[in-house]
Amino acid sequence: MASRGSILITGGAGYIGSHCAKAVAEAGFLPVVYDNLSTGHRNFVQWGPLVTGDVADHDRITATIREHNALAVMHFAAFSAVGESVADPQKYYSNNVAGTLGLLRGMREAGCDRLVFSSTGAVYGNAGRDPIPESAAGPTVNPYGRSKYMIEQMLADYRAAYQFKSVCLRYFNACGADASGTIGELRDPETHLIPRALMALLGHVPDFAIFGEDYETPDGTAVRDYIHVDDLASAHIAALELLLKGDAGGVFNLGTGTGYSVREVLDAIRAETGEAVPSVVRERRAGDPPILVADPSKSESGLGFKASRSDLGHIIRSAWAWHQKAHPRRR
Ligand SMILES: NC(=O)c1ccc[n+]([C@@H]2O[C@H](COP(=O)([O-])OP(=O)(O)OC[C@H]3O[C@@H](n4cnc5c(N)ncnc54)[C@H](O)[C@@H]3O)[C@@H](O)[C@H]2O)c1
Ligand SMILES: O=c1ccn([C@@H]2O[C@H](COP(=O)(O)OP(=O)(O)O[C@H]3O[C@H](CO)[C@H](O)[C@H](O)[C@H]3O)[C@@H](O)[C@H]2O)c(=O)[nH]1
C-alpha cells in the first residue's frame, strides 16, 4: 500500500479519471478505482485495484471505503454526452444525480467526508460573459448541465448540514492524453471536437462537420477553453490536499482563460499533423453556447493551480500520438 493512504476514484476507468488515478499514485496515495465499466476501460486501471460496482450501490461503496480505509473520494463516474441528455434525461438524472446520492450515502455510512467532484462548464448555460467567473452559474441549458449543477447544490447543503467537505471542479474542455500512450480519450460514439477531428484524419469519422459558422465570434465558429487532462489531474491533487488539510472546500473553474474557435483548432491540427481535416459546415448543434471561456483567477488563488500544460499545440500533439495508437489509420 502506498504510504499516504488510499483514495477512492469513481469512474477511474474512464478518460479523465484514469489520468487522475495516475496523478494520485504519483502524489503517494493508492488509487482504488470504483467503476461499473459502462463507458470505461479495464486496461486504463494501472495504478491500483479495480472494484467493479455502481456508485448507486451504497452498501458496496461503504464496504469498499471501509476495506481500503479511503481518506477521500474523487467522483468522476457519470454520463456526459450533452445531446444524449436532451434525448434521454432520465438516464442522466438517474445515473448522475441518483447515483451521486448513493455514493454520498455510502460515504457517510463509512465515515468518509471528503469529496472532489467533476463538475462542468455546462453549469453556465449561455453565460454571455467572457471570461466566466464561478458566480455566473445557471440557468443551465441541458439536462447534463442541470444534473451536475444539482449535485453541486446537494454538496453545498451537505457542507452546511453535515460538515461534509467537497471541492467542485468545473472543467471547461478536457483534452489531450498522457505521454505514456496507454490511456487517452476513448469513447464510442465520440462527440468531442479534437478527437473527432483527429479520428477523421485517421479515417474513423467519415462525416466530420463544423457545427455552425454564424455565431457572433470573430470567425463565426464557437469558442471554447481547452485544458489538458494532465493539468486537470494536477488540479485534482491540489483539491485533494486542500481537503486533507481540513478545508471545507468550494467551487472552482478549471480552464486556461484563453478561448479558441473551432476553425482555430482545425488550423492548429493542420499545423501539428501536416494534414487538413476534411470538413463540411452544418447547422449549429442544439444547446451549444457561442463562447465558454473560464475566468481561472479563483482556482489560482484558492487552489494554487494554474494550467501549465495546455498550450494548444501540445494538446494536439499528445492527442494525436494517442489516437494514432488507439485508431490505426484506415485510409
Ligand atoms: N470530458 C470532458 O470534456 C468533461 C468536461 C467536464 C466535465 N466532465 C466530467 O468528468 C467526468 C469524467 O468524464 P470522462 O470524459 O472521463 O468520461 P468517461 O465516460 O471516459 O468516464 C466516466 C467513467 O465513469 C464510469 N461510470 C459511469 N457511470 C457509473 C456508475 N453509475 N457507477 C460506476 N461507474 C460509472 C464509466 O464506466 C467511466 O469509466 C464526468 O463526470 C464528466 O461529466 C468531463
Ligand atoms: O464534430 C464536432 C464536434 C464539436 N464541434 C464543436 O466544437 C466545440 C466544442 O465541442 P465539444 O463537443 O468538444 O465540447 P463542448 O464544448 O460541447 O462540451 C464540453 O465542454 C463543456 C464545457 O465547456 C462541458 O464540460 C461538456 O461536458 C464537455 O463535453 C462546439 O462548439 C461544437 O459545436 C464541431 O464543430 N464538430
TrEMBL record:
Enzyme kind, highest EC tier: isomerase
Catalytic reaction(s) noted: UDP-alpha-D-glucose = UDP-alpha-D-galactose
Biological pathway: Carbohydrate metabolism; galactose metabolism
Domain of life, per lineage: Bacteria
Classification via Gene3D superfamilies: NAD(P)-binding Rossmann-like Domain (3.40.50.720), UDP-galactose 4-epimerase, domain 1 (3.90.25.10)
Subunit structure and binding partners: Homodimer.
Protein's UniProt name: UDP-glucose 4-epimerase
